[in-house]
């Protein structure tokens, strides 16, 4: 809607005052700067739009003087494209500013202004950016809750979906691997939403500190993060649970019904936040009561093996009880209670959860290398834009800049996304062209065309993050309706629009595939190391806290957050790798196993963290310290192996050369039985069972990772990037 107002207002005023070129200049400035108006704090959005405005002024000024010989034009075009695209090294918001600059550069070839001087046109473009900035700022103050509500609602729904898939994993499943893949994907999406909410809620609270609404939503967000991490935590052994549920299917049904209700209530809360009509807590209480009674029945059977099963179920029951308590507190917070100072989170602690972007100029020098994905993307984009323009000139197309526009919109640093956008852009343009052909044949009124153009543009921008095919369709409709007002031969315009789009899409795909490709196997090694290092730091923090006790330090929570973020980054890289050609999926099965092992390691750490966060624990035994040291040793050796493995050319060792961990007798039952014999306290038994079960699992995972990384030759190498 903001884009619609920003576009239509200057155009209407320009027509009314017979200053159409001024209106169009302001209109284009607003459009080009609007991408920086993405989710985040108001301050960061304002800075992003301001930088976009400044960049489009500079680029439009330079572009205004590019009516020169092709001998000079092509190298200047390539150099400018590279420099503007290279701004993306400074992160996501910088990439949006870069996109604004690229739009301004390409559309300077459209020669939109005929009566304005170049400097006047450039300044008006900047004025359009400032016009959009003012609209965005005013809208924020009119409806400051809108952005928070939207992202929080999406987070509720994704969390509900995550819980629902976890529910399906309870009991023996024929497709457990696929369900776990879905969980990894969802976790990655949720981590992105959490980062956005951290920026919105923590920075806004730091700046104002007075918004009761934001304070409550911050507490709700913290609870949603804890719900996710508790859901990821896996305090059970699947094989043991499968055997137990086969004997006692009523327990499986009880757990599934309870988790299903938790998932359902999260979805209902997301949809009814405004009305505050939330599901009754009694439903959860009844389902939990039924489950608890069935667990107690299992213990009363007095079978020797049932006590360990009972301890395992009690720990799982305890986790579900924590989820219920968190959900109840979310409902309470959304019911507009009066908060006390004790309810609020300390600002100094919150600052540690925000990662400030690194804008060091040294990043430019560090990324001027074929090791940098952004460097290769910028170089590839520059060459492709020059090729697109050359083809447009060679075949004397009506609007050769449309080819370049298609290229900058489609091309992304990753192969999978570029391929998908090429396909969606082509299909969307064909659909839009077909619809427009029918409509311009039936409609002749320019006012209707103008209305349809604005409506189509609004719909296109509203769907750009969710359905790019639909976005391409409505963008095409909007462009054609505008041309239908300006030119009588609109059908010829449609024809060239389709041809230019297809050429741009094909060029983007071909160059992405063959010109300095940035395959994910080139970077996934670093992601695996980062995730493993973050997991190791998290494990060391947990081990230290378990040994020393006391209040939970903020550093432990920060390390927990970092482990989840790095795991999300690893999952995203692997998903990109899975979308690439099979010839580039080097040893993908082993890499996927490393991803899953890291994910399982984090799940186990989350289980221990969740337990020690909510319970008083006993003194750490010498055995705990010894095995923790053994796990750390395995992980450190694995990390060293990873540092010496060339993931571009994985070379398996001979069977005789593979490392074999020293034999180590680790019996969960042995350690558990010793602890049980030394105490009659059931809570101690539950602690011992969970800690030793998880330590055994962590030890097993560390050995698997060590064996897996030892399969490949490890030596000092200098990667060569094609």
Describe the structure.
The chain has 722 residues and is mostly helical. It has 3 domains: 2-142 and 385-514, no CATH class; 146-351, Methane Monooxygenase Hydroxylase, Chain G, domain 1 (Up-down Bundle), CATH 1.20.58; 520-709, Methane Monooxygenase Hydroxylase, Chain G, domain 1. The chain is built from 27 helices and no strands. The chain is elongated. It starts with a helix and ends in a 13-residue tail after the last helix.
What radius of gyration results from the CA coordinates?
Answer: 29 Å
The major β-sheet equals: none
Helical residue percent?
A: over 70%
- Which structural class should the secondary elements be placed in? mainly alpha
Tally of structural domains: 3
Elements, N to C (H/E):
HHHHHHHHHHHHHHHHHHHHHHHHHHH
Q: What are the low-pLDDT stretches, counting only 5+ consecutive residues below 50?
A: 716-722
Provide a count of the helices: 27
What does the overall shape look like? elongated
Chain-averaged pLDDT = 83
Beta content: under 5%
Q: What is the first-to-last residue Cα distance? A: 44 Å
Total strand segments: 0
């Amino acid at each position: 809607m903001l884009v619609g107002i920003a576009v239509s207002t200057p155009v209407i005023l320009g027509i009314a005052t017979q200053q159409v070129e001024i209106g169009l200049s302001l209109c284009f400035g607003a459009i080009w700067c609007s991408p920086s108006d993405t989710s985040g704090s108001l301050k960061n959005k304002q800075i992003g739009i301001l930088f976009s405005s400044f960049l489009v002024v500079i680029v439009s000024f330079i572009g205004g003087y590019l009516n020169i010989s092709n001998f000079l034009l092509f190298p200047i075009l390539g150099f400018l494209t590279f420099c503007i695209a290279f701004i993306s090294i400074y992160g996501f918001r910088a990439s949006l500013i870069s996109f604004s600059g690229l739009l301004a550069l390409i559309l300077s070839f459209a020669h939109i202004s005929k009566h304005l001087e170049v400097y006047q046109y450039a300044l008006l473009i900047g004025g359009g950016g400032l016009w959009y900035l003012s609209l965005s700022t005013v809208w924020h103050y009119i409806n400051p809750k809108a952005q928070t509500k939207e992202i929080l609602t999406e987070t509720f729904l994704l969390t509900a979906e995550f819980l629902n898939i976890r529910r399906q994993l309870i009991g023996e499943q024929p497709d457990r691997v696929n369900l776990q893949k879905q969980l990894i994907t969802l976790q990655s999406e949720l981590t992105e939403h959490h980062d956005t909410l951290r920026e919105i809620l923590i920075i806004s609270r730091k700046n104002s500190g007075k918004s009761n609404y934001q304070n409550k939503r911050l507490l709700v967000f913290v609870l949603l993060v804890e719900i996710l991490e508790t859901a990821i935590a896996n305090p059970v052994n699947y094989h043991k649970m499968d055997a137990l549920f086969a004997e006692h299917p009523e327990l499986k049904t009880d757990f599934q019904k309870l988790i299903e209700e938790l998932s359902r209530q999260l979805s209902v809360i997301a949809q009814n936040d405004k009305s505050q009509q939330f599901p009754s807590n009694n439903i959860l209480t009844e389902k939990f009561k039924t489950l608890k009674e069935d667990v107690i029945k299992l213990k009363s059977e007095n079978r020797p093996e049932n006590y360990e099963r009972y301890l395992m179920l009690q720990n799982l029951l305890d986790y579900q009880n924590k989820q219920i308590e968190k959900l109840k507190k979310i409902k309470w917070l959304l019911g507009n209670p009066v908060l006390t100072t004790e309810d609020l989170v300390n600002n100094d602690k919150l600052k540690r959860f925000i990662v400030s972007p690194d804008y060091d100029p040294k990043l430019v020098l560090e990324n001027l290398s074929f090791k940098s994905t952004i460097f290769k993307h910028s170089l590839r984009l520059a060459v492709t834009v020059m090729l697109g323009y050359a083809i447009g000139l060679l075949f004397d197309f009506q609007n050769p800049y449309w080819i370049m526009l298609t290229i900058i919109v489609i091309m992304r640093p990753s192969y999978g996304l570029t391929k998908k956008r090429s396909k969606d852009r082509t299909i969307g343009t064909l659909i839009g062209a077909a619809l427009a052909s029918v409509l311009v044949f039936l409609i002749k009124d320019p006012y209707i065309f103008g209305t349809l153009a604005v409506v189509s543009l609004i719909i296109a921008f509203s769907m750009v993050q969710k359905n790019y095919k639909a976005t391409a369709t409505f963008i095409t409709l909007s462009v054609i309706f505008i041309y239908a007002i300006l030119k009588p031969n609109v059908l010829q315009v449609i024809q060239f629009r389709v041809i230019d789009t297809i050429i741009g899409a094909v060029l983007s795909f071909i160059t992405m595939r063959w010109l300095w490709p940035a395959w994910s196997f080139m970077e996934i090694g670093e992601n695996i190391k980062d995730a493993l290092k973050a997991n190791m730091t998290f494990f060391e923090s947990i081990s230290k806290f378990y040994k020393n006790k006391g209040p939970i330090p903020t550093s432990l929570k920060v390390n927990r957050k970092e482990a989840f973020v790095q795991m999300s980054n690893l999952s995203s890289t692997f998903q990109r790798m899975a979308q690439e050609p099979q010839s580039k999926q080097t040893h993908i099965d082993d890499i996927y196993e490393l991803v899953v092992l890291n994910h399982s390691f984090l799940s186990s750490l989350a289980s221990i963290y969740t337990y020690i966060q909510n319970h008083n624990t006993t003194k750490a035994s010498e055995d705990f310290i010894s095995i923790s040291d053994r796990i750390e040793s395995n992980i450190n050796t694995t990390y060293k192996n990873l540092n010496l493995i060339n993931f571009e050319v994985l070379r398996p060792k001979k069977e005789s050369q593979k490392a074999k961990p020293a034999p180590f007798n680790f019996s969960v039952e042995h350690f558990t039985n010793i602890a049980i014999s030394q105490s009659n306290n059931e809570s101690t038994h539950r602690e011992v069972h969970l800690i030793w079960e998880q330590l055994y699992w962590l030890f097993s995972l560390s050995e698997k990772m060590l064996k897996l990384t030892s399969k490949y030759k490890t030596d000092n190498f200098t990667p060569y990037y094609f």
